[in-house]
Design brief:
- The protein is α+β, with helices and mostly antiparallel strands.
- It has a single domain, classed as Alpha-Beta Complex (Conserved hypothetical protein from pyrococcus furiosus pfu- 392566-001, ParB domain), CATH 3.90.1530.
- The protein contains 4 helices and 7 strands, in the order H-E-H-E-E-E-H-E-E-H-E.
- A 4-stranded mixed β-sheet has the order 1-7-5-6. Strands 3-2-4 form a 3-stranded antiparallel β-sheet, with no helix packed on it.
- A hairpin with a 4-residue loop joins strand 2 and strand 3.
- The C terminus is likely disordered.
Length: about 170
């Protein structure tokens, strides 16, 4: 997949985070895609949802810990009403589905091989909570892990890449 194809697919409503789209025309960026049925992979994706230093819901502007899909429910008591409603609605829908839930998920590659969700967090969290079979269509943008590209990346720049077997996501 080319970067311009990623932009065509997700710019203008397909990605609602504060991604610096104008930076993507640089040779520093590339894009890939993969298909997976792994609920483990789904749970490992980082979200743009955060837990504050004292627990509870927070955001990227504060000293906060980014949550993975599998961890997102830890802050549920503090979720805004709209988030709670959307996750609950998707979860109910997914539990009733007769086929695997197909999720199209744009992501950004992190230093440690992890992936940051750029959109689809409500659906991803709901599918994980529903414990249903999934088909993940993951589109990944690779480039500098720097807050100038996306403010949320400030929480991921200090990550030390793991080493050894079983450290890649796929």
């Amino acid at each position: 997949m080319r970067v311009d194809q990623f932009v065509d697919a997700f710019q203008g409503g397909g990605v609602r985070v504060q991604l610096s789209w104008d930076r993507l025309d640089s040779s520093e960026f590339s894009a890939t895609h993969t298909v997976s049925r792994s609920t483990g992979l789904l749970g490992s994706l980082f979200t743009v949802w955060y837990e504050g230093q004292q627990g509870g819901n927070s955001d990227w502007r504060r000293a906060a810990h980014p949550l993975r899909v599998s961890e997102a429910s830890r802050t549920e008591p503090d979720w805004p009403a709209n988030r709670r409603h959307r996750v609950s609605s998707f979860e109910k829908e997914f539990v009733q589905a007769r086929e695997p839930i197909q999720l199209v998920l744009p992501t950004y590659a992190l230093h440690d091989g992890g992936l940051l969700l750029l959109d689809g967090t409500h659906r991803a969290v709901a599918a994980h909570r529903a414990s249903v079979p999934v088909r993940l269509l993951i589109y990944t943008l690779r480039g500098p892990v720097h807050q100038d590209v996306l403010p949320d990346l400030r929480h991921h720049t200090a990550r030390v890449p793991p080493s050894g077997p079983g450290t890649s996501v796929g």
